[in-house]
Write a structure and sequence with these properties.
698 residues, alpha/beta, Rossmann fold, Arc Repressor Mutant, subunit A, 9-stranded mixed β-sheet, 19 strands, globular
């Protein structure tokens, strides 16, 4: 009874109640934080002004299937000047608006809704905002809630999409389109706002076209932590520098990775291999590299652009052409990683931080060919047999048998089958877990699911294998500080100078490397005997054995995947401001009678005072791309530009950050994600660098 009374007292104590409450001081502060507004949004009514100077080429297919929105212009939200009473009443009329999350979460999504809600209520308190539940499923199935001030206030500046949840269903049939239209009409919606990535904004364009005759407007909002929604005109003008959520996710990853750098420098025994999200582009890897100064970061776009000059040189000598010299192979990539590890080990640093993008395999020649071929085989099987390939062949061996039948001409009897004997041979050389990964079920959009493949394991297994070879060759050694060597020898009353030249290949350097010929205690003894430092019958002095063991590397790795934690992160100060203004932009586009436009902020790479709210015609961004074996209209993903300031700065500094020298490591500590305060970043580092103009420009 006494202990029960004590527990009851403890649970009801005000201190216990305070520290175990669902709401802490950080959450309360976040909810009360008020994002900044672009100046135009503090001035009242607005007008949309066409910006014909921004040019895009029309895709012929987009022109054919999106005729009512293909000729949209870029629009800028501008001050209205003097409006008539009729114009003011039209702008401020009571309107019902719908909003839906689509795809994976991204930090800041709730602030898009908050900005949209606040602006709707600002001009007419009787206007209503409806949120569709569980993503586009809620739109199709008419599942929704009315979003109230209480709901919005609970989610202001908070991470996730928990307010109305999200989903990945595509509205890809007339039946789904009809159901969506019916839902919107029953609610009396004037407009629908779709918050999502490239596929979701593609969906928004088709909805805008389908809804056009009904008078219901559709506005898209660019969301993806991958950062691969970027919009540049045909003339090189940047209209959308990055999608929302990117900065917060990159900062969340970077804090975790910088924590690992602290661990690495403390224990000096692990290489931490960090895979970060980015299925198609390496923007997150580049930003986290700039944030953390990781030892080695692999930018997929650079690997795809790789040219093996050694192979080209040999081909020129033989007067041949080596087509395999263009684009890096897995084997060569593993060799480059090994070079990095060996260089650092030679200075006593048998540890480090490596960052690789989730979709790195898409940039590897041989793997990309496999993915393309397997996607085609799976898509053709589904079409021909009208059943799912993965249901028909549930196990790995069954899938491999089917591929073998194709290579042997038992299914594909053409002269050049899509899967030939050479493919079969190379594919079967891959580890079983990786073959299973390449044959994993594609996502709803027909994309290869890189997050389900242990890419880092395959690469590091190849690295470990080759490091073993280099260790046997005596190349992979840990450097021993000369002063440490002297101290060990002096403490054992052995003459360090007497042994130094016999054991080490670089006796005059600050870090000593055991000779390549000394790869075991047996070869060590042979060296000492041949240098007359001991007799063949004697045992090697214990101190010398200790020094030899110090030189022998034990390569250990810890692997980490950063994805879901970043997309569920609380939004940074940048994303809080960015997304709130995106929500307000969406409202002003609706009030300006726009449809088929993507709400965007121009000049994101500049300081906040230069931000400009605009609408970008989604149809202009679309092109044909193969999905599930068929050509489909989609928004093209933006890859890392190897000529951008951000990448060029990274490339220039990466040798320094490698720190394969006698100096200290250069790891950077970016700190936690914050939303306020003098030390908080106002933009992603890559955007800051990209904002730097040439000398002859302002």
């Amino acid at each position: 009874m006494g202990s029960e009374i004590e527990l009851d007292y403890l649970l009801n104590h005000p201190i216990a109640n305070s520290v175990t409450a669902d709401l802490n001081s950080e959450t309360i502060a976040r909810r009360s934080f008020v994002p900044k507004k672009i100046q135009i949004f503090t001035q009242g009514y607005s007008l949309l002004k066409d910006q014909p100077q921004y040019r895009f080429s029309n895709d012929k297919e987009a022109q054919k299937v999106l005729p009512d929105i293909i000729n949209n212009k870029v629009q800028k939200v501008t001050p209205s000047g003097k409006l008539s009473e009729t114009q003011k009443q039209n702008f401020s009329k009571k309107r019902n608006t719908g909003v839906v999350f689509s795809g994976g979460p991204a930090p800041g999504g709730h602030n898009v809704i908050a900005g949209l809600f606040d602006e709707i209520k600002k001009y007419n308190p009787e206007s209503k905002l409806f949120g569709f539940l569980m993503g586009t499923d809620g739109l199709i199935e008419s599942q929704y809630i009315e979003i109230t001030k209480e709901i919005v206030d609970t989610h202001r500046n908070m991470g996730g999409f928990s307010m109305i949840k999200t989903g990945r269903t595509k509205i890809d049939s007339n039946k789904k389109m009809d159901s969506s239209l019916k839902t919107c009409m029953n609610l009396g919606l004037e407009a629908l706002v779709v918050i999502g990535g490239d596929d979701s904004n593609t969906n928004a364009a088709f909805l805008a076209q389908y809804f056009k005759k009904s008078g219901i407007k559709v506005i898209g909002v660019p969301k993806t932590i991958d950062g691969d929604i970027q919009v540049t005109t045909d003339d090189g003008d940047v209209l959308c520098a990055i999608s929302f959520g990117f900065h917060s996710a990159a900062r969340a990853f970077s804090q975790n990775i910088s924590n690992l750098s602290n661990d690495g420098q403390s224990t000096v025994k692990y290489w931490h291999v960090c895979k970060v999200m980015g299925r198609v582009a390496s923007h997150l890897t580049l930003e986290t590299a700039l944030q953390t100064h990781a030892t080695l970061s692999l930018i997929g776009e650079e690997l795809a652009d790789y040219v093996d000059q050694d192979r080209l040189g040999k081909a020129r000598e033989n007067k041949t052409i080596d087509y395999n010299a263009f684009g890096i192979t897995l084997r060569h990539l593993s060799r480059l990683i090994c070079d990095t590890i060996v260089k650092r080990a030679s200075f006593g640093k048998n540890y480090g931080i490596m960052i690789i993008p989730e979709g790195i395999l898409e940039f590897i020649n041989e793997i990309q060919v496999f993915i393309i071929k397997l996607n085609k085989i799976i898509a053709e099987y589904n079409t021909i047999h009208d059943q799912d390939f993965h249901r028909a062949f549930p196990g790995l061996n069954e899938k491999l048998d089917y591929l073998r039948w194709i290579s042997q001409g038992m299914i594909d009897k053409s002269a050049f089958p899509i899967w030939n004997l050479r493919d079969d041979e190379l594919f079967n050389q891959l580890p079983p877990f990786f073959r299973a990964g390449l044959l994993v079920e594609r996502d709803l959009h027909g994309n290869f699911q890189f997050s389900q493949v242990k890419t880092e394991k395959m690469i590091m297994d190849m690295v470990k294998e080759y490091l073993g070879v280099l260790k046997e060759q005596g190349v992979y050694k840990i450097g021993i500080k000369n002063s440490e060597y002297n101290s060990i020898m002096d403490s054992s009353h052995l003459n360090p100078d007497l042994y130094r030249s016999a054991i080490f290949r670089n006796p005059g350097d600050k870090y000593l490397l055991v000779k390549e010929t000394i790869i075991s205690q047996k070869t060590l003894k042979q060296t000492l005997v041949s240098n007359e430092l001991m007799d063949a019958e004697e045992n090697i002095p214990g101190t010398i054995v200790e020094i030899f063991k110090k030189s022998q590397p034990d390569f250990k790795t810890q692997t980490h995947f950063y994805g879901y934690d970043g997309r569920g992160s609380a939004p940074s100060h940048f994303d809080c401001n960015y997304t709130y203004n995106l929500g307000m932009t969406a409202f002003h586009l609706i009030a300006g009678n726009a449809t088929g436009q993507m709400a965007a902020i121009r000049n994101l790479e500049m300081e906040f005072e230069k931000w400009e709210p605009i609408g970008i015609p989604i149809a202009k961004l679309m092109h044909l791309e193969e999905r599930k074996g068929k050509l489909e209209l989609v928004i093209e993903k933006s890859l890392v530009d190897l000529n951008s300031n951000g990448f060029r700065v990274y490339k220039a500094l990466r040798e320094k950050w490698l720190a394969a020298d006698e100096g200290l490591d250069h790891y950077r500590q970016p700190g936690p994600v914050r939303f306020d305060g003098e030390t908080e970043e106002d933009r992603p580092i890559s955007l800051v660098l990209n904002s730097i103009s040439p000398k002859n420009k302002s």
